[in-house]
Amino acid sequence: MGKGKKEIQRARMWRYFLDAATEVIEEEGIQNVTIRKIADKAGYTSSTAYNYFKDLSHLKFFAAMRFTTDYLNELPEYMKRGENTVDKWLYAWECFCKHSFEQPEIYSVIFMDNLGTESEELLSHYYDVYKDDLSGLPETIQAIIMQHHFSTRSALYIQGAVEEGFIEQKDVTLIADMTLMIWKGMMNTYMNRRRTETKQEAAGRTVRFVQECVFRAVNPSRRKELAFNCKYGKDDIGGF
C-alpha cells in the first residue's frame, strides 16, 4: 500500500472515531467521553483507537472542534459590523463569548485543558482532514483560526490597529494576553459556579471587561472613532 493510500485510510479511520465521539458527546456530554465508549460506538477496540489518537485528551479536542461550526459561520458576519480593526476585533470577541459560554465544556477542552502537546500541531492536523470547515471564510479569518494559541491569533489580528494608529506596538502582546486571561478567568468562574450568573450575563460581562481593557489602550484622540456596541446591556450584567 502506497503512502497516499495509507493517508487516505488514516483519514477515514479518523472520521469513524470522530463521528463516534461526536455522538457520545451529544448523548452524554463531553465530560463523560471515554476511549472505550467511542471505540465501541465506532465498532473497533480501544487499542485500535490509540493507534490513531495519542490519548483521550487529543480525541476530545478533535471532537470538540466539530462543535465550533456555528461560531465559525457567524464570525465573519460579526466582524463585518466593525469599520476598523479595533471594532472588528471586539465584535469577534462578542461572537466568541456568545458561543463559548453557550458551550463552556466544549470550549474549555479546546482552549483550557492540558493536551500534553502543542495545540497548534493538533489544530493543523484537524484542518488537514476537515478542510471544508474553513471553506467560505475570508482568508484573513482563516489565518487567524489556524493559529490555535489564542493570544497569538489576537496579536496577529490587532496588528492592524497599530497600522491604523489606534494602539501602540508595545501594547499588542499585553492586550492579547490580558483579554485571554479575562476570558479564562470568567469561564473558570462560570463553570465552577462561583457567581450566580446566567450564560448570557457571563458572556456579556466578559465582553465588557475585554472592551474596557482594549479601550484603555486606544489612543485617546482616536477613541471617539470606535463604534462597537455590545448587544449585552449594562442592565443585563449588573453594570460595573
Characterize the structure shown.
Keywords: DNA-binding, Repressor. GO terms for molecular function: DNA binding. This is DNA-binding transcriptional regulator, AcrR family. The chain is an all-alpha fold. The protein folds into two domains: 51 residues, Homeodomain-like (Arc Repressor Mutant, subunit A, Orthogonal Bundle), CATH 1.10.10.60; 168 residues. The protein has 13 helices and no strands. The protein is elongated. The C terminus is likely disordered.
Topology:
Blueprint: H1 3-28, H2 35-42, H3 46-50, H4 56-65, H5 69-79, H6 85-102, H7 104-111, H8 119-129, H9 139-145, H10 150-163, H11 172-191, H12 199-217, H13 234-237
Relevant terms:
240 residues, mainly alpha, Arc Repressor Mutant, subunit A, 67% helix, HTH-type_Tx_Regulator
Number of helices: 13
SS-based class: mainly alpha
Number of domains: 2
Query: Low-confidence spans: pLDDT under 50, at least 5 residues?
Result: 235-240
Helix fraction bin: 55-70%
The span between the termini is 63 Å
Main pleated-sheet profile? none
Net shape = elongated
Mean pLDDT across the residues is 83
Domain HTH tetR-type: 11-71
Keywords: DNA-binding, Repressor
GO molecular function: DNA binding
DNA-binding region: 34-53
Q: What's this entry about, in short?
A:
With 240 residues, the protein is mainly alpha-helical.
